[in-house]
Give the backbone structure.
Amino acid sequence: MSKDKIIEIVDEIKVELINIAKKIFEYSETAFQERKSSKLLSDFLEKEGFKVERRIANLETAFLAEFGDGKPKIALLAEYDALPEIGHACGHNMIGVMSVGAAVALRRLGDIKGTIMVVGSPAEEKGAGKKILVEAGVFKDVDVAMMIHPASMNTGYDIAYALRAFKIEYFGKASHAASSPDKGINALDSMISLFSMIGLMRQQLPEKVRIHGIITNGGQASNIIPEYTSAEITVRALDEKTLNETVEKFKNIVESAAKAYGCEYKITELDSMEAVLVNEPLAKTLEKNYKSLGMKITKRTYEQGVGSTDMGIVTQTVPGIHAYVDITGGIDIPVHTRDFAQAANSEDGYKAMINATKALASTCGDVMNSEELLQEIVSYFERRKGIASS
Ligand SMILES: [Zn+2]
């Protein structure tokens, strides 16, 4: 498979790709509302000869496009959701386009070995769409999964927090705050103590653990001893073991804070996300393709800032990467800012997006044409999962 030919084909379709990215930027549809954006991407794939299934896993804005047959089966993930108020400040208008562009380039190239699949995955920002898709079995025959996210650096690697989010409730007893405070049980005392205890616990927590939250109900009226309070609190760590250990400590203090004042309590797990398991052979292959396109590689470090992504669960299910492309010309612009939104709709940003599309398609080509590389990718994954589960 000729990489020069792949590059040539991406150049043939680049005007169309940039137009799609611009339109998705304009639509700025938020989680699960991405009707026009997902239609635009799936219509393009259909026109290019892909078999497209819309509304998969009961999600209106998810889709699955496929072409080719047999192994290896490569899944390219498409995100396209925006943020409320600040629009495409995470650059997701480019993510779907890169995956779709790479898939179309391979389809036009013709002589590919295996299956290319584009997974239209809604709601990365809120709702963890990919988790729903994983649970629906979308990745069950997939050998490799990849996506590229806009950023201020080019890298095949990522670091992301695993997280567990909880709703905490305290139940006390209402009473007049002035005339009969002694008859009440104050659910707010438990809540305030909980936040203080989290603060004290921080000193003894392993480095790079995060606990953050808000009080969602702080009581009913200032002349009533609060009978009910609630909060939402998220715990994050870079690995599952540390996360679960921290969650156990956290649950203990939730209980202690209830007991201290005679309240009842309830813990409800709201959400969870997995850390990204970077498949190194795959990340290195993408970086090699970046380099041959003249793109400068930056090492991914914790200090650059770390969040969480629903791509985590995908990389824990099948070998995969959550890579980055520099759309800001190396200037450090954090995501979820208006400045980043501007970069996500800039000519230089789109130029970087096209380069990354070429690298992504070339990486698919590498995996499809080298059984040795595929074997290396698979054994790396099995080795890492083996360690993780022991
Ligand atoms: Zn994002």
About this structure: The beta strands are 51-54, 63-69, 73-78, 114-120, 144-151, 162-171, 210-217, 228-237, 264-273, 320-326.
